[in-house]
Amino acid sequence: GLYLLISSLLQALNGFVLVVTSEGLIFYSSHTIQDYLGFHQTDVMHQSVFELIHTEDQSEFRRNLHWALDPPHAPEGEPSATAGKSLSSSAVIYKPDQLPPENSSFLERSFVCRFRCLLDNSSGFLALNLQGRLKFLHGQNGRSEDGSVLPPQLALFAISTPLQPPSILQIRTKNMIFRTKHKLDFTPLACDAKGKIVLGYTEAELRMCGTGYQFVHAADMLYCAENHVRMMKTGESGLTVFRLLTKDNRWKWVQANARLVYKNGKPEYIVVTQRPLVDEEGGEHLRKRSMHLPFTFATGEALLYQSTHPLPGFPDLFQSKGKLSKSKKPSCSHAGRSQKNGIDPRSLLGAVMQQDKAVY
């Protein structure tokens, strides 16, 4: 009951709670961070906060973490981002009698920083107002190099709210938007609670098959793959409208934007923000796409209707002679057969072959 109460209070708050240690590690973030920045709570906890903050704003954040707004300077020639990540090794440990009392107005904080944002209504960063105070973070039991227990240190406890109030449209659509997390080849790793409601799958069902393309309509696969390649090159897919297969074997149109998430300068995983569309909206996008890509293979019809008009050199997609799965979830049992046919089950063609013909 208490968890539900806290959860509903966080939802009502236009922002999220953030607790950052004096050395810049995110000790805690409320789950509502996902509604504002697109990162899942577990993605950011115990990570350096400086990985999320715009380079130009890192020194301002570091200044506000310090009790006297005067942090120790980074070594000469060391870039600020690196200084942020290596702060733990150079963190100054204070004894409680060296710090002002916890109720001092001197420890109140209110400042603005730009945070990295994965949502498609941002330019990659969202300006947040952080309002709160420095308080002692107890129970850490950290030890110094000589093994003695370190005293509790001040940490920033703040509520982070967007500088721009959300528009009515954002508030209305926020409840329908869901997010998924993928490996770099698009294999599903996680899906939030709203996504599970929209698609009907459990996280295990999404993760147990190949690259995730077997949930995509055959006529949308090449179009999605093209935007996937664009995202790997530029970091963002751009607006992508396509059909996803739901648990009850129906096609659901979604408008999506995929972004690469980097760790230590290297792409680590993909986060996709998706908004369900009604069929009419999806159909309109498909018509626009068909005008840009008149060649049938580019819009996928060649894959779909190949069994009626076979292309020389391609095996019949649905030649499994009635052995296709009738289960309610995408079947992975065809992967082995795909390899026997000389088709990689992780390829687009392999993904189509794993789909049940009945869904078309």
TrEMBL record:
Keywords: Activator, DNA-binding, Nucleus, Transcription, Transcription regulation. Residues 319-345 are annotated as: Disordered. GO terms for cellular component: aryl hydrocarbon receptor complex; nucleus. Residues 6-72 form the PAS domain. It holds the Pfam family PAS_3. It is found in: Nucleus. InterPro entries: AHR/AHRR, PAC, PAS, PAS-like_dom_sf, PAS_fold, PAS_fold_3. One of its GO terms (molecular function) is transcription cis-regulatory region binding. PROSITE patterns: PAS. One of its GO terms (biological process) is xenobiotic metabolic process. The keyword Lyase does not apply. This is AHR protein. It comes from Motacilla alba (White wagtail). The gene is Ahr_1.
